[in-house]
Amino acid sequence: MVPPPPFPRFLDEHREVVYRFLAAIVGPDDADDCFQETFIKALRAYPRLASADNLRGWILTIARRTAIDAARARRRRPEPVADPEPPPRDGTPDLGDPALWAAVRALPPRQRAAVALHYVSDLPYAEVGAVMGCSEEAARRSAFEGLRRLREVIR
């Protein structure tokens, strides 16, 4: 059993994968807030960690739950009628076609999480299943169904 590294090193090692996952799941507008909330939750729980066996899976599980909370909160917020101009780019990573990522965010939650964890965060299906709380086969099936829906939307 290996003890966890100091929190700043843990943060440096996992910040990019967590941010990319959140940007894919909640979009670039909410990714910063979810990122901060994820690492605040992790910082609070970090002293109770006994082992560093699967820190990436642990932090991505926290990120996934934070994204779910953000989606629930978003449904309760009023929607703006019109956006006068697009927000300025502030150095956030370019994730490619905005229409594609809007389609990813429109997927059902399990499919969206499986697609983002496997194709954005580059996790093997076994880890995707661990983060999502399901079997490897269920994670593989969710990603497959998500890709199938995306192909239908893109065509």
Description:
By secondary structure, this protein is mainly alpha-helical. It is 69% helix and 0% strand. The longest helix has 22 residues, at 55-76. The protein is globular and about 50 Å long. The N and C termini lie far apart (49 Å). The mean pLDDT is 86.
Uncertain stretches = none
Which overall shape is indicated by the principal axes computed on the Cα atoms?
A: globular
Q: Which percent range fits the helix content?
A: 55-70%
**Gap between N and C termini, in Å?**
49 Å
Rg calc? 16 Å
Number of helices: 7
The secondary-structure element order is HHHHHHH
Mean pLDDT: 86
By DSSP, the count of extended strands is 0
Q: What structural class do the secondary elements suggest? A: mainly alpha
Main sheet properties: none
Tags for this entry?
155 residues; mainly alpha
Topology, element by element:
Layout: H1 7-26, H2 28-45, H3 55-76, H4 98-105, H5 109-120, H6 125-132, H7 136-154
Helix pairs in contact: 1-2, 1-3, 1-5, 2-3, 3-6, 5-6, 5-7, 6-7
Structure at a glance:
The chain is an all-alpha fold. Helix content is 69%, strand content 0%.
